[in-house]
Amino acid sequence: MKPPPVTPHRRLRGRRRSAGYVTGVLALALLALPVRTAEPQGADRTGAERAALIRQIHQAEDLRGRGEDGLIPFVDGLAHADPEVRVAAARGLGRLELPEHASLLMPLLGDARLEVRIQAMLSIARSLRGWAGRPAGER
To answer: Which of 17, 38, 58, 123 is the most buried (most CB within 10 A)?
Structure first.
């Protein structure tokens, strides 16, 4: 009797999982974490103030965190009461693709707002891309 043909599914059994698979499982696990139910105080900022803060974060991102303020707009944005500012700060830090920034993003995984948690997870994954490309001695 002839053995069944080897399908792509059977061929992948026993192999190491891809980075996309691991990221997807991590994302589902992080979204299932319990979250704080209260919004941070002071979340009733004006639209103009929010826009100014997000603009500062974008400028720091364009300068790759090397401007005169450095990472201060990102760090201040991560602790801000407005969820849109937290999302912008997390996105900006992730785009720098520096693994040392993952520890700054970890507290946002327990944020009360789903969009902040999702962006934190994506930014952590993106910042760890830089880690994979470094020599083992520098990790």
So the answer is: 123
Q: Are 99 and 130 in contact (CB under 8 A)?
A: yes
With beta carbons less than 8 A apart as the criterion, state whether 77 and 52 touch: no
CA–CA dist 107, 45 (Å, integer)? 22
Question: What distance lies between CA 57 and its chain's CA centroid?
Answer: 15
> How distant is the alpha carbon of residue 39 from its chain centre?
20
pLDDT tens sequence across 66-114 = 766 788 899 999 999 999 999 999 999 998 888 888 899 999 999 999 9
Nearest to 35 by CA among 136, 124, 107, 139: 107
**What's the whole-model pTM score?**
0.64
